Amino acid sequence: MAQVQRMSRLMIKTLRDDPADAETASHKLLVRAGYVRRTAAGIWTWLPLGKKVLENVSRIVREEMDAIGAQEVLLPALLPKEPYETSQRWEEYGDLLFRLKDRKGAEYLLGPTHEEIFTLTVKDQCTSYKDLPVMLYQIQTKYRDEARPRSGVLRGREFQMKDSYSFDTSDEGLAESYRLHREAYQKIFRRLGLDYRIVSAVSGAMGGSASEEFLAPAAAGEDTFVDCPACDYAANTEAVTVKVEPSDAAGVGPMEELDTPDTPTIETLAEHLGIPASATLKNLLVKVDGEIVAVGVPGDREVDLGKLGEHLAPATVELVTAEDFTDRPDLVRGYVGPQGLAGKSFKYLADPRVAPGTAWVTGANKDGKHTRNVVAGRDFEVDEYLDVVVVEPGDPCPECGAGLRIDRAIEIGHIFQLGRKYADAFELDVLGQNGKPVRVTMGSYGIGVSRAVAALAEQTCDESGLCWPREVAPADVHVVAAGKAKQTELALEVGDKLGAAGLRVLVDDRAGVSPGVKFTDAELLGVPTILVAGRRAAEGVVELKDRRTGEREELTVEEAVARLSA
Q1: Do 379 and 255 meet the contact criterion of CB atoms below 8 Å apart?
Q2: Is 275 helix (H, G, I), strand (E, B) or coil?
Q3: pLDDT at position 444, please?
Q4: How far apart are CA 306 and CA 388, in angstroms?
Q5: For the chain, which ranges sit under pLDDT 50?
Q6: Which residues contact 336 (CB under 8 A, 6 or more apart)?
Q7: CA–CA distance, 275 with 254 (Å, rounded to integer)
Q8: Per-residue model confidence (pLDDT) at position 239
Q9: Are 201 and 236 in contact (CB under 8 A)?
Q10: Could you tell me the end-to-end alpha-carbon distance of the chain, in angstroms, rounded to an integer?
């Protein structure tokens, strides 16, 4: 329904200066333009114009979810502890979970995601294969106790999210539900006006197999992704794989112990021996659920602890400390090597670059000693290969071998084929066609609704302020009365005509506010079309301006209304 909003009656307070704690463009501009205000760390109030943008994003999401046959529900945000104990996520979420007790001592949480409750809902409502497939979704407030909430609404402790779940009786059905969601997400992000990439991802604690992220490239992004300039490969850096063929170690001599005093680091070792760091084997010791595990990578590469954690989830991964060496005389700090210890003193994980047949210089498990010609597969065995190094620009594409590019992005959506993880936990079965129970398989699909607002602000803003795509903007046209009574009268008249033509209109009719301030606010608020009733108001002529391009044109009121309502 068309609406005319007069700024003289709108609760809005714009700011000339950036908030002191704001680092990202979206944080600065959403606050300065009066779209949001900080209530507490990571907790935000959506003011009238911001709420309109948030609702426009939600509307687009709803329309595309409804179009694939998904049904909207609304589950509680306050949830009982027991289902999350059953799924083991009461403990797995750790400090991210908001936990509370009622007056009787019963324990609850504020929902971070709702897989458990959706599963129980379907278990209660669907008993036969005839009831499936079904896709359910909600747009709900979620809660995560972020240690360092930052970047405004990009990373908050309370946020709006669309989460949907599919329930099928077969893997083929799950694949179809996944396809429908993937296509719906593409339509949603195109309608929102977001530049996005679909990249391979890891499922981590969510479980499941197939997993893809939808990323909006932006300098403020906390995710990094790679893409290949030579093919269509793209992936989150945590999901990048490397293919390395085994080497022929036939010409490598026997292991040779070297005297290397005061060389506990890769840098000091490489300098002492006059070899590149890439010829050395770095052995990082970590604790996985309290047990010491070694991770081997080439000496010129760093272990990506995020990737390692994702691979080993839900186990807890932490670095060893000096105290951990006290009770382990077999582990010599700064001189650990896998030969003789791998599989005995610790489980040995390695990056694929430590392929069978590759030869290395590594610790000799003696203070001040290293060993040369240590060959993987001959002198030590790798218990498990994992892609765990930090990806660097120029690393080979796993599909075609070309050098990869790295960029930053904001995660705006994530889709998973969960499989039967939660169905197994809650024994979600339906009666099959043959009269026997069939275990249901699930998909999980999320979109950050409030995060999408921030991502749009990041991608579309300019030096003057916000610049919303039309479908999510708080209004279609921003009419500015640049003068006194005559200009205000004309601005209100043209605003009413545009409203009657079905457009959403914001009219700046504020008295006592200079034209310069009004023009600055119009640029800051970012409505896509600006219409100015100014110096030629007495002639019935207004100025039409495109917010994004800056193009201007003078038209009569009738011409402007006809143009904008066409």
Answers
A1: yes
A2: coil
A3: 96
A4: 8
A5: 1, 205
A6: 283, 285, 294, 363, 365
A7: 19
A8: 84
A9: yes
A10: 17
Structure tokens at 409: 């992005």
SS3 category, 531: strand
Looking at 299-346, list the stretches that DSSP marks H as alpha helix, in order from N- to C-terminal side: 305-312
430 and 169 in contact (C-beta within 8 Å)? Answer: yes
Q: Two tokens at 404?
A: 């990869």
d(CA 562, CA 341): 80
Q: What is the DSSP secondary structure assignment for residue 130, as one 8-state letter?
A: G
Entry pTM:
0.88
pLDDT at 204: 54
Phi, psi of 395 (to 5 degrees): -60, 145
C-alpha 532/C-alpha 241 separation (Å) is: 55
Contacts of 384 (CB under 8 A, 6+ apart): 347, 349, 350
Q: What SS3 state is found at 174?
A: helix
For 123, 272, 308, 310, the CA distances from 157, given in Å and listed in that order, are 30, 49, 25, 22
Contact 542, 494 (CB under 8 A): yes
Strands of 73-180 (E only): list them.
Answer: 78-80, 98-101, 107-110, 134-143, 158-168
Q: Which of 175, 369, 177 is nearest to 272 (CA)?
A: 369
H or E element at residue 341: none
What local confidence, expressed as pLDDT, does residue 340 receive?
82
Predicted local confidence at residue 252, as pLDDT: 94
* Angle (nearest 5°) at CA 283 between 279 and 288: 155
- 382 touches 296 (CB < 8 A): yes
Question: CA distances (Å), 324 to each of 94, 113, 171, 303, 339, in order?
Answer: 23, 36, 45, 20, 20
Backbone angles phi, psi at 41, to 5 degrees: -55, 115
Query: Residue 381 in contact with residue 343, Cβ under 8 Å?
Result: yes
Cα–Cα distance for residue pair 391/408, rounded to 1 Å: 13
Residue 261's SS3 state is coil
Q: How many CA atoms lie within 13 A of 10 on its CB side?
A: 25
Q: Which two tokens stand for residue 324?
A: 């951990």
- In 3D, which of 27, 310, 12 has the Cα closest to residue 156? 27
Amino acid at 247: S
Q: Which of 374, 316, 326 is nearest to 350 (CA)?
A: 374
Q: How far apart are CA 299 and CA 94, in angstroms?
A: 33
The answer to whether 469 and 528 are in contact (CB under 8 A) is yes
Task: Output phi, psi for 557, to 5 deg.
Answer: -55, -45
Residue-level pLDDT at 19: 93
CB within 8 Å of 137: residues ≥ 6 apart: 65, 70, 71, 72, 73, 162, 163, 164, 165, 445
Q: Give the number of residues written for the chain.
A: 566
